[in-house]
Every structure is written in structure tokens, then in C-alpha cells.
UniProtKB/TrEMBL annotation:
It comes from Rubrivirga marina. Binds 1 Mg(2+) ion per subunit. It holds the Pfam family Transket_pyr. It is an enzyme of class 2 (transferase). The keyword Metal-binding applies. The lineage of its organism: Bacteria, Pseudomonadati, Rhodothermota, Rhodothermia, Rhodothermales. It comes from the Bacteria. Residues 332-496 form the Transketolase-like pyrimidine-binding domain. This is 1-deoxy-D-xylulose-5-phosphate synthase. Its cofactor is Mg(2+); thiamine diphosphate. GO terms for molecular function: 1-deoxy-D-xylulose-5-phosphate synthase activity; magnesium ion binding; thiamine pyrophosphate binding. NCBIfam families: dxs, PRK05444.2-2.
Length: 646
């Protein structure tokens, strides 16, 4: 357990739960107490250590009821996204380790197969649970075993196309599969789309459900009396009425037996319901209604804010316990620089529109949605759709800026290639959370975008070293008549003074940050700030390093690299992304093609060819050697090795 993780005391019943078998030993009447204690424990831990919050509070009863009614880990429980699985982790042998959640070397914030046999499927990205669960169910059928498979998916995650692909496939099979639709009527931000509206009508169908009972009773009576003609007529009317009025008709049409909506906070009723459902066969969808943040008043009142918490808070009032930063001293977040710049661009140019896939707060596109609701679109958790939708907008002369986290854009790669680049459409990919994302870990690191974007024909691929450059690159992208990708990281930018307005940057033009005779750093993106620090530290050693900021990996700045390779025999490239195919590769490929490599040693610093776990961004940068220490070390090693060889 990391050293700085204080211990927390669970309630008496929770303290006895070492595994779900202990939950199953409880009577159903004891479950409410277990839920109360579990909820308190989650609040206790997150109030000190931070993490995702509202979603786990909302599924406390569902989690307890599932582990009570199902025989986990033999029965397979698949969580979608997994940010709501804190209760599951705590109940499945990880209570004592839970204070290490999301910390460097500690538990993962998401279910992870290597962490526990109860984590049946690794998650972090949304909408995968139904497909994965169906795969497990099919494997079971093929192997002739009899375990049950349950997918738990939220209403937001259900807006993803992948979820529908899973439903479509599952509903056409006779495999036993339970999908629990945990409907709390919110995503990270307010949920959107027609499905959201549909679910709202189902949720409101409580009155109909009551009436329905009476209507079906009447039909049963009618069928039991009178002659055959009356019975047949009653049966036909009943079928017709059911088809027309049954809540969940959409899911029934997908081949699922729909049950619900049920109160997801009545743990006793829910546990009994699940016990009954476990005995049924075929694809079933159980629709539970829950409240995100349940039981913690501030989180219920502001569900967007309490989706996750990064700093400590008072566990009674919710008041932040973080040391306040004096006003005006906090550098802006990269995402806000983007969000503000986009509004300015949109004010200047009617063609500018914004697109996000369910991340208005995270990308700060929400600012434009608030100011220009007609020109900024949240399309739901639907990255592929977002990209193709943007492509469609671009065919009609609009200039879409697609703000998508680097990691989530992976899901839309075919749209990037087939729908945007191949048609040379002017879509701007604003790839937020590029580089290591931090506590969310490997599912969320934006590790691959430099490599995957570099490979795409027609694409301009850029990254700002500071926020002035981000603004200017966005402006440059707007002037460009083809696809353009720009990446920037999670967290705070430099805090530099920004000039008014924008300046176009010639496409493919990097810049020299400083001269130096002993070696050259060639950096790509905001990680270049570490090289600035490294240069200062090397100065103190009497090593004079030059520093070049590439800005573009495609097209790459041939003039700048001609200077680098013309003047230096020691070059270190630095990037916050995988080394394979990344900016360093681009530099070496250019030098090789240009015949400029001759005698020059190039060291490429970046993410290695393995998945990087979670921790703070700085811890992870240091781990892989792209923090200031690592850069200085690499420089000394390179120069030292040469000195030794001489
Ligand atoms: C592919 C993908 N896109 C976006 C996200 C970011 N994301 C994480 S949770 C979430 C909202 C999920 O909403 P819902 O399924 O309703 O769960 P809730 O938080 O309401 O419990 C989003 C958009 C993601 N994890 N994966
Ligand atoms: C679970 C999920 O995908 C999001 O909640 C994600 O953790 C948000 O990350 P940021 O905090 O970087 O917006
Ligand atoms: Mg939801």
C-alpha cells in the first residue's frame, strides 16, 4: 500500500465481508445495513483520496444485491466503464487496499482482470459491457457450463453505438444474459439524445405499471370465462395491447425480455428480484432507476460536479478542504484555453462549429454549448458518430472542431481515415488528454495519437508547447482546407501572458527555443516545458543544450531539422506518447531519408512499448524517463558515453 494512504474504519457488518460469499450468508433483511456502511465507507475514502464518486454511490444497492443474488466470481459480472465499481471492489477483497485506489502502485480506479478474479473484464471506456458479456455467455454455451453472465451499463453508456451492436446481436440469440440498465438519467454531463428521452418516458411509467397489473388481471378473467371465441378475442386484444403499450418495447424489439423500471435503491426488493431473474433464461434487460450521488446530499444536488473529485472534502458538508490558490495565480487548464479560443474563433467565423462526444465539461466545449447552443453539439458517448457527423458538416462548408480525448478517439479511427482524411475534409481534431492522463491509468492515457495520426494521409499533425501556440494552432487549423489534428494534455498550461487575437503559424514550421553547442533537444508538445527545465539544470553542469520545438510532426520542419542535424552530433527527442511511430520516429525517419543521420546519435525519449499504469502525471513521466530528471539523465548519459568512448 502506498505510504500516504491513511486507514479507514468500516462499519461492523462491512468489516465482516471478506468476499461476496459473506454477503450471501446474510439475510436479505441485513442488506440495507450493509448498504449504509458501504456508502459511508466510499464517502470516507473518496473524501480523503479523491476519485470517481457519484456513480459508485448510486449503485451501492445494486452492487450488494447483485453479489447477494449471483454466485460471483463463478457468475460473471461485467461493469461498463467501471467508474461505478468502487463498491464492487470493496466487497470483493479489496477493502483494506482501497485507500490506494488510483494512486501510483495502488489499486486501479477501474475493474482490471489482473487485479481480481471478480473483475471479469477490464474497462475504462464506455459501452463495452454488453458485447463482452455476450462473448462470455456464448463461450459458456459452447463449453456447456452453467454460470450466469450479467452486464451493468449506465444510461449514458447505453448511448454508445457499441452497446446497440451488442444488444442487436444478443437479442437474436437465446443465450442467457442479463443486462442491467442502471438509469440515473445523467452521463458525466446531462445525458442527451432520443434514447435518453425514451428512457425518461419509461421511468415515468410507474402509473402505467400499476394500471397494467389490473388490465392483465381483467384479461386473465376474460380468458377464463365465456366461450372459445371470447377467449381468443381477449388473447388477441391482450397481445395487441402489450405490443403497443409495454414499457421497454424498444428492448423487447431487440429480443430482450424487459423488466422494470424498478427502484434501484430498494435493496431488499432488488435482491429478491435478481434472485428471481437469475432463474430465468434468455436475454433479459432489467431497468433500474437510481440517483447518481445517492446518500450524499451535495452530490445529489450537483451531479456533474460530483462525478469525480480530485481534492479532499468534508465528508459531511462536501466543502472542499483543498488549500485555496490566491486569485489570479492559477494557470488555466489546457481544456479551457481550447474552450475559450473556440468561442472567439466561432465569433469571428460563422462556419465554426464544435462537437463533443459526451464530454462538454471535460473538453470545455460546454462553454461554447452555453454561449452558442446552436453551434456546439454533444452527440452522446459516440465518438465514431461524432467524427462522421463532423465530416458531414464539413461537406457543407462548416468548420467542425471535434473535441475528443485522445484515448476515446481511438474508437473513431476509421472515421478519421475513411470519412475525413480520404475525402480531405476540413475537420479539426482537438485531442484533449494527450499523453499520460494520470490517475485514470492505461485505459485513459493518450499514448497513441501521434503515431496513429501521423500515419493518416492528408492529416496535419501538430502539438503546442504552450497555450499561446494552442490558440494560434487552432486559428491555423481554421485557415487550413483539410484535416488537422492538434493534441494537448490534461491539466494546467503554463500560465503565460496571452496576446489578444490569433496569429497563423505556417504549417510545418517549428521553432528554436534556444541555441546550444553540446547537444540538441527536439521536443514535441507541452512536454517541451520539461526540456526547458532540463536545459537550465544542464547549464549548471556547464553543458549547453539547444532546444527545438517541433510543433508539427506532419508535415515536419525540414529546415529546422537540417539545422539540428547540421549542427549537432547528439540529439535527444522528447515526447509524451509512445516512441514507436511517434515524433522521435518522425525525426529519425526524416534524417534517414535526408541522409542527415550520418554520425549523429539520436536518443528517443517517450513512452515505452508497454502499458503505463496509473499515478500522477509527474510520477508517470518520471517513471518512463521523460520528466526533467529523466531528460537530464539521458543527456548526461549520451554525452558521458561519448566522452568515455573518446
Ligand atoms: C468511449 C468513452 N467515451 C467517453 C467516456 C467518458 N465517460 C466516462 S463515464 C461517462 C458517463 C457514463 O454515463 P453512465 O453510463 O450513465 O454512467 P453514470 O456515470 O451515470 O453512472 C463518460 C462519458 C468513456 N469512459 N469512454
Ligand atoms: C470514467 C471516465 O472516463 C471519466 O470520468 C474520466 O475519468 C474523466 O477524466 P478527466 O478527469 O480527465 O476528465
Ligand atoms: Mg448515467
Amino acid at each position: 500500500m502506498p505510504q500516504d494512504a491513511p486507514t479507514h474504519t468500516p462499519g461492523p457488518l462491512l468489516a465482516q465481508i471478506e468476499s461476496p460469499a459473506d454477503i450471501r450468508a446474510l439475510s436479505v433483511e441485513q442488506l440495507p445495513q450493509l448498504c449504509d456502511e458501504l456508502r459511508d465507507f466510499i464517502v470516507d475514502i473518496v473524501s480523503v483520496h479523491g476519485g470517481h464518486f457519484g456513480a459508485s454511490l448510486g449503485v451501492v444497492e445494486l452492487t450488494v444485491a447483485l453479489h447477494w443474488a449471483y454466485d460471483t466470481p463463478s457468475d460473471q459480472l461485467v461493469w461498463d466503464v467501471g467508474h461505478q465499481a468502487y463498491g464492487h471492489k470493496i466487497l470483493t477483497g479489496r477493502r483494506e487496499a482501497f485507500p490506494t485506489n488510483r494512486k501510483y502502485g495502488g489499486l486501479s480506479g477501474f475493474p482490471k482482470r489482473s487485479e481480481s478474479e471478480y473483475d471479469t473484464f477490464g474497462v475504462g471506456h464506455a459501452s463495452t459491457s454488453i458485447s463482452a458479456a455476450l462473448g462470455m455467455a456464448k463461450a459458456r454455451d459452447l463449453k456447456g457450463t452453467d454460470q450466469k453472465v450479467v452486464a451493468v451499463i449506465g444510461d449514458g453508456s447505453m448511448t454508445g453505438g457499441l452497446a446497440f451492436e451488442g444488444l442487436n446481436n444478443a437479442g437474436a440469440t437465446d443465450s442467457d444474459l442479463l443486462v442491467v440498465l442502471n438509469d440515473n438519467r445523467i452521463s458525466i454531463d446531462p445525458n442527451v439524445g432520443a434514447l435518453h428521452e425514451y428512457l425518461a418516458t419509461l421511468s415515468a411509467s410507474g402509473k402505467w405499471n400499476a394500471l397494467k397489473g389490473e388490465v392483465w388481471e381483467l384479461f386473465d378473467k376474460l380468458k377464463g370465462v365465456g366461450g372459445g371465441h371470447l377467449q381468443r378475442l381477449a388473447a388477441r386484444v391482450e397481445d395487441g395491447l402489450k405490443a403497443a403499450l409495454t414499457p421497454g418495447m424498444l428492448f423487447e424489439a431487440f429480443g430482450f425480455r424487459y423488466i422494470g423500471p424498478v427502484d434501484g435503491h430498494d435493496v431488499v426488493a432488488l435482491a429478491r428480484q435478481l434472485q428471481r431473474v437469475r432463474k430465468l433464461g434468455g436475454p433479459i434487460l432489467l431497468h433500474t432507476l437510481t440517483v447518481k450521488g445517492k446518500g450524499f446530499a451535495p452530490a445529489e444536488a450537483d451531479q456533474v460536479k460530483w462525478h469525480a473529485q480530485s481534492s479532499p472534502f468534508d465528508k459531511l458538508t462536501g466543502k472542499s478542504l483543498a488549500t485555496p490558490t490566491p486569485a489570479g495565480t492559477k494557470p488555466p487548464k489546457w481544456q479551457d484555453v481550447f474552450g475559450d479560443a473556440l468561442i472567439e474563433l466561432a465569433e469571428q467565423d460563422d462556419r465554426v462549429v464544435g462537437v463533443t462526444a459526451a464530454m462538454p465539461s471535460g473538453t470545455s466545449l460546454g462553454k461554447m454549448m452555453a454561449e452558442m447552443p446552436d453551434r456546439a453539439f454533444d452527440v452522446g458517448i459516440a465518438e465514431m458518430h461524432a467524427v462522421v457527423f463532423a465530416a458531414g458538416l464539413a461537406t457543407q462548408g462548416m468548420r467542425p472542431f471535434c473535441a475528443i480525448y485522445s484515448t476515446f478517439l481511438q474508437r473513431a479511427y476509421d472515421g478519421v481515415v475513411h470519412d475525413v482524411a480520404l475525402q480531405d475534409l476540413p475537420v479539426v481534431f482537438c485531442m484533449d488528454r494527450a499523453g499520460v492522463a494520470g490517475a485514470d491509468g492505461p485505459t485513459h492515457h493518450g499514448a497513441l495519437d501521434v503515431s496513429y495520426m501521423r500515419a493518416v494521409q492528408n492529416m496535419v499533425v501538430a502539438a503546442p508547447m504552450d497555450e499561446q501556440d494552442l490558440r494560434d494552432l487552432l486559428y491555423t487549423a481554421l485557415q487550413h482546407d483539410g484535416p488537422f489534428a492538434v493534441r494537448y494534455p490534461r491539466g494546467a498550461a503554463t500560465g503565460m501572458a496571452l496576446r489578444d487575437g490569433f496569429e497563423a503559424i505556417p504549417i510545418g514550421k517549428g521553432r528554436k527555443i534556444r541555441d546550444g553547442a553540446d547537444l540538441a533537444f527536439v521536443t514535441y508538445g507541452s512536454i517541451g516545458q520539461y526540456a526547458v527545465e532540463a536545459c537550465e539544470r544542464l547549464d549548471a553542469d556547464g553543458v549547453r543544450a539547444a532546444h527545438y520545438d517541433l510543433r508539427f510532426v506532419k508535415p515536419i520542419d525540414a529546415a529546422l531539422l537540417t539545422e539540428v542535424f547540421g549542427r549537432h552530433t547528439h540529439v535527444i527527442t522528447v515526447e509524451d506518447g509512445v516512441r514507436d511511430g511517434g515524433a522521435g520516429s518522425a525525426v529519425v525517419e526524416w534524417a534517414s531519408d535526408a541522409g542527415a543521420l550520418d554520425g549523429t546519435r539520436v536518443v528517443r525519449l517517450g513512452l515505452p512499448d508497454r502499458f503505463i499504469e496509473h499515478g500522477s502525471q509527474r510520477q508517470l513521466h518520471d517513471e518512463v524517463g521523460i520528466g526533467p530528471d529523466g531528460i537530464v539523465r539521458a543527456a548526461r548519459a549520451l554525452l558521458g558515453a561519448e566522452a568515455e568512448a573518446a
